[in-house]
Amino acid sequence: MNIKWLGHSCFALTESTGTVIVTDPYNAKEVGYSMPEVTATAVTVSHPHKDHDNVAAVKGSPLLINSIGSYEVEGVDISSFRTFHDDAHGKLRGNNLVFTYRLDGVTVCHLGDIGEECSARIIDAIGAVDVLLIPVGGKYTIDAEVAKEYVDKLMPSIVIPMHYSTNDCKLNIAPLSDFVDLFDESNVTYLETDNIDVDRTRFDGDFETEVIVLQK
Asked: What CATH number did the domain enclosing 81 receive?
């Protein structure tokens, strides 16, 4: 399978069969990034905010998944459960959906705009995960320190940070460095591309969690 970062919290997850799932497409005016042209089989939306629910930007008449449940989309298994967008039981920013996807035998988890502290309830609901897509910019989501706690508890093989400040992102959130500085340099890989191919065999045997930074 291939994971392509389209900016902010938006990714294109592509199975070898050609099924494409796009996560949290954004409004470019809200975020600052230019939303790439993308065609998808389905779109998942973690919550109805303009930097996460611009479904109209995705081509191909995709199936919209924006509620709790279990789904099967052309061979890809998708499930979701509700969390809070803030640490005040949703009183500040409402609810958020966490999605897990199974593509080519690889389990990917997208935490959306999760704002809750790490808890046993959430860790149990997510379960075993190979690739974790996690917000790290704080203010509207968990911050770097809480994100690191999620990583330590979930122990994914690969972590791909999202929802952080860059030169192009105009949101007032923290930079990537706040998160990656919490890891040993040997466990952080900066790629010069916006995508990575992931094979099931990568997760066989012992491993240390690797933070992979994709470039927009």
From this structure: 3.60.15.10
Domain that holds residue 28: 2-213
Q: Which of 48-57, 126-135, 150-159, 191-200 has the lowest mean pLDDT?
A: 48-57
- 8 Å CB contact between 32 and 167: no
DSSP H or E segment with residue 177? helix 177-180
Pairing label, strands 76-84, 69-73: antiparallel
Domains in the chain: how many in total? Answer: 1
Instruction: Write out pLDDT tens, residues 202-216.
Output: 887 777 899 999 998
Collapsing DSSP to helix, strand or coil, 11 comes out as strand
Strand ranges of the sheet holding 76-84, from the earlier edge strand across to the other edge: 69-73, 76-84, 95-103, 106-110, 131-135, 158-162, 210-213, 188-190
pTM of the shown model: 0.95
Q: Check if the beta carbon of residue 44 is closer than 8 Å to that of residue 65.
A: yes
